[in-house]
Amino acid sequence: MAASAASDSGLPDFAQPPVDETALSLQFAPIPGFSVPHFGLYWERVRSEYPHVEVKAPIANITEQLGPAAAAGRQLGLAFVTAPELRCWYLDQSRTRLVQVQRDRFVHNWRKIIGTESYPRYPSLRASLEKEWKRFCDFLKDEKLERPKINQCEVLYVNNIEYEKGWNGYGELDKVVASLATPKAKGRFLPNPDRVSMQVTYRLEGDAGRLYVAFSPVIRGRDGKELLQMTLTARGAPKSPSDEDVFAWLDLGRKWVVRGFADFTTSEIHKVWGKQ
To answer: Would you say the pTM of this structure is higher than 0.85?
Structure first.
């Protein structure tokens, strides 16, 4: 799903990947003392680059449990909250790049707004996250607040797979999903499916986390077009909260997302996306 940057890293390389949104996310325990005024104070720090702000509900705290009887992606409830829980989006002028902040999470996103924007590639997003994370930690230090200790990382890619671009509806889903690319049974009773949703989960190497691959039909907000959305999410814990280990985990998560994307989709549809 990354072109020149992917080839540099030995990962699959697509000239026209269907990626519509990406997010690099850092989760940590709630920052003691971080409250509503700090969202405004932080905005003043970044406002020249992120002039727009939106308030959202917070993202749930999710921790991957990898023991023998562990359930995937367990959500942790936070009790005894004395301040309102919220999440702020800080958006650049184009609204394609944004920083999200809540008491226990820091996220950097890129997304398409018009639909013609070019995916900026992972190394650029990684460098931007590194810059914004340092600026956020400097802000916390200036406010005499603790530096967060990151306990979970996420790499998320949302791909919009449009109809009539290498396939024509769910009767031809085998042209998109490699595991379905088998000879179809003759004389079957059921017609072609009208819609298909699915989710598959994999463990990362060394029990470093999990990769979630999900397909679902959606209506795209910007143009009302129906399409198949493929979301890949890698989530897990870095070896330590150090920046070196955190960004090493993000690199691992990115590898699983990109290679998982290539493995899960067919060589036929790869031609449509310009696999190099």
So the answer is: yes
